[in-house]
C-alpha cells in the first residue's frame, strides 16, 4: 500500500485535529487533507500487536468499495504519528451515531446500505477473515449515504483447516468465544434490522417479504452466508 503524499517530515502536533479518543487508540485528521491517522499507544507489547494485526488484515483485504480505504502507515521518522495506520476520512462518523439521518433516507438507499454491509462481509469471508465485531458502529457513513466496513483489530484469520490466528494468538481470553463467520452473519442480521426496515409502514413491509426472510435466516439458519444474504437482497430488489 502506497503511503499518501503528506510531508511527514514537517508534520507537527498542531497539524492534527482530534476526531475520536478511545481506550486503545486515538484518531486524528491530518489538517487540510482527507486522511485520518489511527494512533495506538505502544507502551505495552499487546498494544503493538493490535496495531500490527489490524495493518496485516487491511493489507490482505486490499481495496473493496464497501470497506474503509486503508492508505498505509506513517513512517518511523514521523514522531507525532508514532507509526499510525492511515485511512480515508469520513466526517459523518460511524453509522450508529448517524442512525436518525439514516432512517430519514429513502427506502431504496437503505436497501443499498444493506447490500453494502452484506457485500463487505462476504468479501472478507472469501479471504477467510472473520471480523469478530459486526455491529452498526463498525460501519462508517459516507457523505453520499453509502457505508463502509471498518475496525479489524479484533478480527481473526482462518487457514481452512480449522486453525486460526489473531492479535491475541490462538485464543480470545478477553472476548470469550472464538469469532466465526456465522457469528458475523448473526451480527449482520442485527445491522440489517437497525438500518430501518422495521420502521417502515406495513404496506412497504408487505412488499419486502424477502427482506423479512433474510433477517430471520441471519438469526436462525446455520450456514446462511454473507454472500447468500447479499444475493437475496439483490434478488428481492
Automatic annotation (TrEMBL):
It holds the Pfam family Pkinase. InterPro entries: Kinase-like_dom_sf, Prot_kinase_dom. One of its GO terms (molecular function) is protein kinase activity. Residues 13-237 form the Protein kinase domain. It comes from the Eukaryota. This is Protein kinase domain-containing protein. It comes from Pseudallescheria apiosperma.
Amino acid at each position: 500500500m502506497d503511503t499518501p503524499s503528506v510531508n511527514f517530515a514537517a508534520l507537527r502536533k498542531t497539524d492534527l485535529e482530534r476526531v475520536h479518543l478511545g481506550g486503545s487508540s486515538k484518531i486524528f485528521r491530518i489538517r487540510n487533507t482527507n486522511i485520518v491517522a489511527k494512533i495506538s499507544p505502544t507502551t505495552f507489547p499487546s498494544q503493538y500487536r493490535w496495531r500490527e494485526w489490524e495493518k496485516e488484515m487491511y493489507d490482505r483485504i486490499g481495496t473493496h468499495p464497501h470497506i474503509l480505504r486503508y492508505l498505509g502507515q506513517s513512517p518511523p521518522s514521523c514522531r507525532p504519528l508514532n507509526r499510525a495506520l492511515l485511512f480515508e476520512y469520513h466526517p459523518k462518523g460511524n453509522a450508529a451515531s448517524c442512525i436518525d439521518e439514516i432512517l430519514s433516507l429513502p427506502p431504496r438507499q437503505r436497501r443499498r446500505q444493506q447490500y453494502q454491509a452484506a457485500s463487505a462481509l462476504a468479501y472478507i469471508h472469501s479471504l477467510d477473515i472473520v471480523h469478530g465485531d459486526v455491529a452498526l458502529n463498525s460501519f462508517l457513513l459516507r457523505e453520499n449515504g453509502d457505508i463502509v466496513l471498518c475496525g479489524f483489530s479484533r478480527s481473526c484469520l482462518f487457514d481452512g483447516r480449522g486453525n486460526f490466528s489473531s492479535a491475541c494468538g490462538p485464543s480470545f481470553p478477553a472476548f470469550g468465544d472464538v469469532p466465526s463467520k456465522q457469528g458475523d452473519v448473526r451480527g449482520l442480521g442485527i445491522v440489517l434490522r437497525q438500518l430501518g426496515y422495521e420502521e417502515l409502514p406495513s404496506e412497504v413491509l408487505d412488499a419486502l417479504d424477502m427482506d423479512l426472510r433474510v433477517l430471520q435466516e441471519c438469526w436462525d439458519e446455520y450456514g446462511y452466508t454473507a454472500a447468500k444474504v447479499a444475493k437475496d437482497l439483490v434478488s428481492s430488489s
